[in-house]
Amino acid sequence: MTNKPIILWFRQDLRLSDNPALDYAAKSLCPIIPIYILDVRANIGAASKWWLYHSLQSLVQSLNQKLSFFIGDPQEIIDKLIRENNAAEVVWNRCYEPAVIKRDKGIKEYLKNQNVQVKSFNSALLLEPQDTLKEDNTNYKVFTAFYKKNYLQGNSKIRLPIAKPPNLNLLKIESLSLTDLSLIPKIKWYKNFEKIWQPGENGAFIALDKFLAKGLKGYKELRNRADLEYSSKLSPHLHFGEISPNIIWHNICSYSQKHGYDVDAEHFLSELVWREFSSNLLYFFPDLPQKNLQQKFDNFPWEENNDFLIKWQKGMTGYPIVDAGMRELWQTGFMHNRVRMIVASFLVKHLMINWRRGLEWFHDCLVDADIANNSASWQWVTGSGADAAPYFRIFNPILQGQKFDPEGNYTKKFVPELKQLPIKYLFSPWLAPESILAALNIRIGIDYPKPIVVHEKARQKALAAYNAISV
Ligand SMILES: Cc1cc2nc3c(=O)[nH]c(=O)nc-3n(C[C@H](O)[C@H](O)[C@H](O)COP(=O)(O)OP(=O)(O)OC[C@H]3O[C@@H](n4cnc5c(N)ncnc54)[C@H](O)[C@@H]3O)c2cc1C
Fold this sequence. Notes:
This protein is mostly helical and 471 residues long. It contains 21 helices and five strands.
């Protein structure tokens, strides 16, 4: 053991609990230099930048203001810091986005050639992609088989969380400040976010506790209801690594054993495994955000229609459940999972707009924007992905609204211009009798848009296009 400092590079692991790289550095007893580098090449959406700023602010506090900030090329920055601080080792937790894997491999190799020790750890996934292969050493493309083989035999393979190190010998070095990273977007559309979210490790634990107390019981049945709070809202916390999936996994298991919520817990854990499955797909198909997994979709006749795209983005399609979802996204940085499926299906099937346009908008607007989950999910909805929903399953936005927002509370919240409309007409306001609309002062086409496409016609057109690529 030398007493030279260790550089601890924080990335998507913005927490102190169950942080293997931090734990390793703390156990070395050497001084630790915690750093955060904003990689100039990273493509971070605007809503995610807002989250990242606040998450880093919270981490700075947890580290007693001893986090140092840099912007630029991580290899150059780390190289310089090693020389300036006479550091002997660099440690980090691994990320699984293709560009980051490539970058990190390069940095590792470079540092090893300079005789600097480098160690990396898994902190983001329950199991890493190379540990979940089939007998024949290829990766799973079907979720159920992936889940059963790797995650179903109890918790045995899922390691227990590591406790937060009791003492940290931290060293602050000269650096930029968090504000210098210019993460807070210039356009202040995010002002509601502050009321809804608490980024950072404490916020993540509060979300977990709230979910255990109020959301887990009934999760399996009620998680699809857009008007109820039966999902954990842990996704942004997971994306930024403010809480580990292991902490969530083991807390859910012990809580459900104690209270007998087995069915709900099992379902929730399977959703966490969808996250793992998406990371797996991205790991083994690095082109997932750009290329159709099923090549037949390369010939799909997507339509360029900027007018429709903008109406979809603004929540002005004339289909209230779609518009509610798109406005929820804009106003809160989040969208309920069921509604994500409805709006995504509407974009690719009713409007026949390329799924990549939807993915880009989600990437910019979601606080939980995650390349793996986002691209796997868009391809899943489109039907072009692994184990995907069949293309011919085209959601009817009227029926979906009635089913998953039965009292209309979600839709009325985000589409307040229709809030007086009787539930019978809420999801198809253009069918409401003139007398009702007039009494409520709602002019379809003026106060709320007419549907931009007719459901049945759009459905037939999408099916014909699909059949043409399927022959
Ligand atoms: C078109 C589309 C795009 C999506 N884009 C993203 C994205 O960019 N980032 C993202 O985290 N999720 C994405 N999802 C998946 C899912 O909608 C969110 O993870 C979920 O809504 C987050 O809410 P929650 O934390 O309350 O979920 P819960 O129901 O509480 O689930 C717990 C956790 O499991 C994981 N999870 C749940 N559902 C899925 C899923 N279908 N796929 C992968 N992981 C899942 C998430 O990490 C989530 O936090 C997308 C889904 C669709 C249909």
